[in-house]
Amino acid sequence: MPAGARVLDVGCATGYLAAELAGRRCRVTGVDADPVVAERARVHCEAVVVGDVEDEDCRSALAARAPFDVVLCGDVLEHLRDPWSALRALAGLAARDGRVVLSVPNVAHWTGRRAVARGRFPYAEHGLFDRTHLRFFTRASARDLARSAGLRVVEERFAPAPLPMQARLPALRALERAAVRLRPELFALQVILVCEPSGPRR
């Protein structure tokens, strides 16, 4: 995230990420469907659009503020009815040399596989089985999502999840990092893709 970048923070919530970006002189436009949390984000954002990115009025309001150097979709696409068309629309807001960064939970993480193998799909308040998730992604389907939105993946990163007893056995951290590097499909909790638009740009 270059200092001074114009950033679109999709699903900005209370602006906790925007606050970090503002510290790097980024000019952040936030968008969130929840008016209560969006109001709290205003203190950290240059502007906040209250609306659903799957709604045309919201997309028009964002387009009026485009182009953006970075369009950031952090843990939001899995909550949408049609993340494919939403991401395509959001990618169109990126500048000519801009980037689209997205992160999605990896439902193929070993804990998810274990639950399904036991015949369970344990909806929860957060995590892989968050009850507000409408879509589920793996490493491969996250890349497919990006490609279908007209994006080219230029960098891929993975967020690990703590292994059992890690707090008591710190030596497991090195093992965890190696496992995520070698088998991200199994050990990465999140897939993070840095993309560039592959079609015509602003």
Description:
With 202 residues, this protein is of the alpha/beta class. The protein has a single domain, classed as 3-Layer(aba) Sandwich (Rossmann fold). It has 8 helices and 7 strands. The radius of gyration is 17 Å and the shape is globular. The relative contact order is 0.14.
Please supply descriptive tags for the structure shown above:
alpha/beta; 202 residues; Rossmann fold; 32% helix
Structural class: alpha/beta
By CATH, the architecture is named 3-Layer(aba) Sandwich
Computed over alpha carbons, the radius of gyration is: 17 Å
Low-confidence stretches: none
Question: What's the β-strand tally?
Answer: 7
General form: globular
Major sheet summary line: 7 strands, mixed
> For this structure, what is the CATH class?
Alpha Beta
* Head-to-tail CA distance between termini: 19 Å
**What is the number of independent domains?**
1
Discrete helix count: 8
CATH topology: Rossmann fold
Beta content comes to 25-35%
Mean pLDDT: 92
- CATH homologous superfamily annotation: Vaccinia Virus protein VP39
